[in-house]
Amino acid sequence: MRRILQASVFCATVLTGALACTPAHAALETGSTAPDFSAPASLGGKEFTYNLAEALKKGPVVLYFYPAAFTKGCTLEAHDFAEAVPDFKAAGASVIGISMDPIAKLDKFSVSECRSAFPVAADPSGKITAAYKAKMPLLHMSSRTSYVIAPDGKVILTYASMSPDDHVARTLAAVQTLQVKTH
Questions:
Q1: Within 10 Å of residue 12's Cβ, how many Cβ atoms?
Q2: I need a surface site. Which of 31, 32, 98, 100 has the fewest CB within 10 A?
Q3: Alpha-carbon gap, residue 45 to 164, rounded angstroms
Q4: Is 74 an annotated catalytic residue?
Q5: Cβ(48)–Cβ(136) below 8 Å
Q6: CA 172, CA 158: separation in Å to the nearest integer?
Q7: Prediction pTM value
Q8: Of 11, 21, 74, 114, which one is the catalytic site residue?
Q9: Is 99 within 8 Å of 74 (Cβ atoms)?
Q10: In angstroms, rounded to a whole number, what is the distance separating the alpha carbons of residues 121 and 75?
């Protein structure tokens, strides 16, 4: 009963943005190998198949999971990532967001909230979300968890917080640090 109540409070938090809380879950650890995946994605409302292994051939990948498109925190986070895309590109990295929303919803989200600056991928089954240990218990949504994955497929940063505030700054700092180490 207590877990159901906690999940209900979390769900209300995600949907209203009224509270900030951090989920208790175990994200992938730094140094672990990121699970490879392919998923339907949308960039500027145009659908394509995103493949992590292909993206890593071009440089590090910032992979961030978010609970639900068009909710307050997820919209703020998408705006923040969109604004920072030039900085990520300057550091040689790409950004991809993933939620358990259907691709049709993400077609709209990729244009309006992601400002056509980076793709978002659909994981309605939760398979990718579970592989990255970002699935919320009892809910059909992911936690807010960000990863930076080096071109060799190793996780160099894991950051989990339901607040959208620090995800961009932390992932950008990790990418910039990786860029300094490789040059």
A1: 12
A2: 31
A3: 23
A4: yes
A5: no
A6: 12
A7: 0.85
A8: 74
A9: yes
A10: 15
